[in-house]
Amino acid sequence: MGTTDTAPDGGVRPAGLAGIPRQRGVAAAAPVGDGGPAADPPAGAPRRRWRPWLLLPTPLGTPFTFGYAALLVVTTLFADHADPALVSELLRGSSTDVVHLAQAPLLVLVASALWIAGGLTSAYALGFVFVLTALERRIGGLRTAAVFFGGHALATVATELTVGFSVAAGGLPDSSLERLDYGISFGVMTCTGALAGLLPAWLRRPLVLGVGYVAVADLLAYADPVTNWGHLLSLTLGVVSWPLLRRWRDRRTAAVPLLGDLGHPALRGSGPR
Fold first, then answer.
1. Which keywords does this chain's UniProt record carry (predicted)?
2. DSSP per position, 196-230
3. Of 26, 39, 74, 249, which alpha carbon lies 20 to 30 A from 67's?
4. Cα separations (Å) of 246 from 59, 133, 189, 218, 253?
5. pLDDT in the model for residue 257
6. What is the biggest distance separating any 2 CA atoms in the chain, rounded to whole angstroms?
């Protein structure tokens, strides 16, 4: 037979049947050493699971990254197997050097980002896949494209202006105005810095410190100072965009609360798309 005890308002409430640990409408006693009553998770609440396949782009889940990656695969295979003279001519026409930027800035800024310096196995190619996938899952495709091409364009213009001023001041030869410059590294570095601001602190700090250390070490090595200074600048551009990116993420989370995502509390539940 059930027993009763006195509620805080003076009423009587059921205490439950002896020997039956859980009954509907009866609060369970807190176990020894616990700070309060044991709480069951809500019925039907999704369990947090790590889904490694979401690290890779998919046509519907991350259309910008997937489509851009497919295009880069095509251009890289073309560069590897086409006539070397033709490839050299196309790369030269896509170069974001001072001369080409002065003649057709928009054309070369876009064309230069269609090639991967170093091929499909380079660090920046791998970084493109994983970093842009993670970023797009958090802020969407159009905003990821804005971060990538914004960083690519700003860092390119800044580095080439430095080259132009150095040539004008006599610090560099005139041939530097037509230095071959193409690739996706500035955009990838900007997206890396941007992604760090959307990660938990235990991931954010090592990512920024690790990538920043590599960028500074390359710059100090002075093997390609113009490009290396552009990498450091690109990473910085991504970091300073954190407040804007967090607002973008929060708006997207509020608008689409059921999209699948890696570990994001409001973006769980769906599988690969």
1. Membrane, Transmembrane, Transmembrane helix
2. HTTS-HHHHHHHHHHHHHHHHHHHHHTSSHHHHHH
3. 249
4. 24, 17, 18, 30, 10
5. 53
6. 98
pLDDT in tens, 150-208: 999 999 999 999 999 999 999 999 999 999 999 999 999 999 999 999 999 999 999 99
DSSP string, 233-258: HHHHHHHHTHHHHHHHHHHHHHH-TT
Q: Are 101 and 169 in contact (CB under 8 A)?
A: no
Residue that is written with structure tokens 């251009």 in the block: 75
Task: Measure CA 41 to chain center.
Answer: 32
In the beta sheet, which residues pair with residue 201?
A: none
Q: What is the pLDDT of residues 27-65, one digit of tens each?
A: 444 444 444 444 445 555 556 676 776 789 999 999 999
Backbone angles phi, psi at 236, to 5 degrees: -65, -40
